[in-house]
Amino acid sequence: MIALLLTVMTLGPPMLKPRLPLTCLLSLRSLLRQLLPCDHNDQAVLAIQVNYFACGGMAICVSVNHAAADASAIATVVKSWPAVVCGENLTDLLTPDCTSLFPPQDLSGIWKVIEEKKNLIVPDDYQNIVTKRFLFDGSKIAVLRDEIGNGPSLFYRPTLEAVSALIWNAMLASNIAEDLKSIPIYVSTSVNLRHRMNPPLPNQCIGNVNQFAMTELLNEETKNLRSLAGKKHDSITKVDDDYVRKVHAGGAYFDMMENAIKEFGRNWMFSVSSWCRFPFYETDFGWGKPIWFGTTMRHNRVAFFPDAKDGDGIEVWPTLVLDEMVKFEQDPGILAYANFKQST
Questions:
Q1: What's the pLDDT tens digit per position in 227-248?
Q2: Other Cβ atoms closer than 10 A to 55
Q3: For residue 317, with 0-12 CB atoms within 10 Å meaning exposed, 13-18 middle and 19 or more buried, which class applies?
Q4: Which of 7, 11, 99, 144 has its C-alpha lying 20 to 30 A from 315's C-alpha?
């Protein structure tokens, strides 16, 4: 399930409406889960819950089955829903059929290996993993980009690549994986394919129109911010129209994913999912736009990158085992560029 929280909004269709003290917002993820309309293991396609607080504010939580939609699709739905409620005559609500580009595939092999590796993705000892919020102000991101330099690593989505390089570098510098010298090191980045196709697909495409770009770091390679940003740039930019059509036409992409999941535990992998530029903060039922947006998604060694409220900075929500997080948040780069937010 993808669970999203938007605070200070108004009503749409009939929904659950529990009243909660404002302190629920202050404890973040452990208490945010109380705002969910269903458990994260629930198979409901869509569930919505409105939560009222004693102060007069409210939060709407939207839970969507990830098999039905990715974050980009959900953002479009969440933005369009209040527009329809408020009487706007939207003409761009079509959801084009993409099956010619992404034909149905047999995913039984992937689901089997996911189940086998489930404890590495979502450990049974759920209390031993922790998620923390780190805010990167726009001014700090500008300084970080200057430090990395104006090389090719900054030609495409510089904020994502620069901050991802910093996160990756902090992982390596903190020696989170004690045997990094003897195992492969990967960072996977979720890439929205809608604007990478020719012609581009509209944002209204519902489904999971994305794929992971894998970045491998060889043991003998130089490890610094500039080189890491450059490698991430190279892995993302190769995902173009020709590449996508080739790997999806015959099911090669899912074979790649199945093999990558099989290697969980035998290599070191960290995943980044950027939700930057998705219009969550543009949602408006007529009572004003959200004062904050967040998520309760939580997977080990995965970081989500939502926009900051001001639109200039970004938040980074990494999830790590507790002792790994202690090392990560003490990294000099993290201390220099990020403002720490309350743990979740």
A1: 888 899 899 999 999 999 998 8
A2: 9
A3: buried
A4: 11
The residues facing 319 across adjacent strands are 131, 302
Q: How far apart are CA 77 and CA 84, in angstroms?
A: 10
Given a cut of 90, whether residue 58 has pLDDT beyond it is no
d(CA 17, CA 5): 14
- Distance from the Cα of residue 26 to its chain's centroid: 22
> What's the whole-model pTM score?
0.85
User: φ, ψ for residue 161 (rounded to 5)?
Assistant: -70, -40
* Pair of tokens at residue 136: 């990167």
DSSP track, 104-157: ----HHHHHHHHHTHHHHS-S-GGGEEEEEEEE-HHHHHHHHHHH-SSGGGSS-
- Residues known to be catalytic: 66, 284
Residues in CB range of 259: below 8 A, 6 or more apart: none
